[in-house]
Amino acid sequence: MAAVLWPYPLWVISLSGVERAHGTRVLFRDVSLRIVPGRRIALVGANGVGKTTLLDIVAGEQQPDGGEVARTKDLQIGYLRQEVAETSGRTVLAEVLTAAGDVTSLEQRLRHLEARIAATPSGDEQDALLADYGRLQHHFEHLGGYSIEAAARRVLAGLGFDDADVERDVGLLSGGWMMRVALARLLLARPDVLLLDEPTNHLDLASVTWLEQFLADYEGAIVLVSHDRDFINAVANRVVEIAHATVTEYVGDYADFVEERALRLAQQEAAASNQQRKIAQTERFIERFRYKASKARQVQSRVKALDRLERVEVKRDDTRRMRFRFPTPPRAGRDVVRLLGLTKRYGRKLVYADLNLVLERGKKVALVGPNGAGKSTLLKILAGVLDFDAGQRTLGHNVNVAYFAQHQIEGLDPGKTVLQELSAALSSNGEAVGPRTDTSKVNPRSMLGAFLFSGQDVDKHVSVLSGGERSRLALAKMLANPANLLCMDEPTNHLDIPSRDVLEDALLEYPGTVVLITHDRHLIRSVADVIIEVGAGTATVYPGDFEYYAERTGVDLADRGATEGVTPDRPDALAASSPAAAAPRKGADDKRAEAERRNRVHRHTKRLRERLLVVERELVAAEAEVAELTRAMADPDSYGDAEQVRELVERHGAAKDRAAGLFDEWARLSSAIEQETTRAETSAR
Question: How far apart are the first and last CA of the chain?
Answer without folding.
Answer: 51
